[in-house]
Design goal:
By secondary structure, this protein is α+β, with helices and mostly antiparallel strands. A hairpin with a 4-residue loop joins strand 3 and strand 4. The chain contains 5 helices and 5 strands, in the order αβααββββαα.
């Protein structure tokens, strides 16, 4: 009986940190996708390989016109830029998008952060498709994922504004 009071006090003292624990953003059940650059950008970061001259057999080499196309592709790749929008807090969780632009054209949109729920997982591909089709953040809200849709649109609009 003489140990009952110290045991109760120490038990409560040990449980207080557990009761006060608040997990960080990485533990809130969010989708955290690390956005890999599109294939075009990956090619841009790789230095061009040096090639050896083809062996000639006495005939004149044929020109295929591939060099101008390669230069054109290189110019297009250099125009690609990726801009991340801000993290927008919604009632369902945090939403953040990253947009890849080629000139003024939206070529890709990735969700960097989004709530980890079934409606959100269903809505993200639809929101991406809508943004690519509309070429703006003026897209329809996905039914069942209203909060995520609004956060997606806000983050996308901010990223587009930051790209100007």
């Amino acid at each position: 009986m003489k140990w009952a009071i110290p045991v109760a006090v120490l038990s409560v003292a040990g449980l207080v940190p557990v009761w006060l624990y608040s997990p960080g953003a990485a533990h809130e059940g969010e989708i955290n996708e690390v956005a890999a650059p599109p294939a075009q950008e990956q090619q841009q970061t790789v230095p061009p390989a040096t090639t050896t001259a083809p062996k000639t057999t006495g005939s004149a080499p044929k020109t295929t016109g591939s060099a101008p196309q390669t230069q054109q592709q290189t110019q297009q790749q250099q125009q690609n830029r990726t801009v991340s929008g801000p993290a927008v807090n919604t009632s369902e969780g945090t939403v953040q998008v990253q947009v890849t632009l080629q000139g003024k054209k939206i070529v890709d949109v990735k969700a960097l952060r989004a709530p980890n729920s079934d409606p959100t997982r269903m809505a993200l591909p639809l929101l991406k498709q809508s943004a690519l089709k509309a070429q703006s953040a003026d897209i329809d809200t996905v039914s069942g994922a209203t909060a995520t849709s609004e956060g997606y649109k806000q983050s996308l609009q901010a990223a587009l504004d930051g790209a100007k």
